[in-house]
Amino acid sequence: QVQLVESGGGLVQPGGSLRLSCASSGSLFRVYHMGWYRQAPGKQRELVATITSGGSTTNYADSVKGRFSISRDNGKKTVYLQMNSLKPEDTAVYYCNRALGSSTLSWGQGTQVTVSS
Fold it and tell me: Where do the DSSP E strands lie in the chain?
């Protein structure tokens, strides 16, 4: 069973930056379209960024466009989320998983991002 392990979260002040990582154990990672999702307390999980299997195409939710950047390293079976100009409303648990119409894998534990002064 493929495992997804997210890391890199933490407490940051508004305007700060974080880089999240998600490592996959699966041998088919390079053919997966991937995405970063987040879930804030009391809210549904939402998709914030996607990247195609080869990394050529990325898309972002309007709420993070221009501030977040998704990338991947298929050799390391890892997808990243660079988050800049963080806002308190970005506070959530962040997860990675398959995206763009693909069935999701088992969810990892996520990584907590807290934006607060």
Answer: 4-7, 10-12, 18-24, 34-39, 46-51, 58-60, 68-73, 78-83, 92-98, 111-115
Q: What distances in angstroms separate CA 59 from CA 5, 12, 30, 80, one per listed residue?
A: 22, 24, 18, 14
The three-class DSSP label of residue 88 is helix
Q: What is the DSSP letter of 103?
A: P
Q: Report CA Rg, the chain.
A: 13
Q: 12-23 pLDDT, tens per residue? A: 999 999 999 999
Which stretch of DSSP H or E encloses residue 86? none
Tens of pLDDT, residue by residue over 58-99, are 999 999 999 999 999 999 999 999 999 999 999 999 999 999
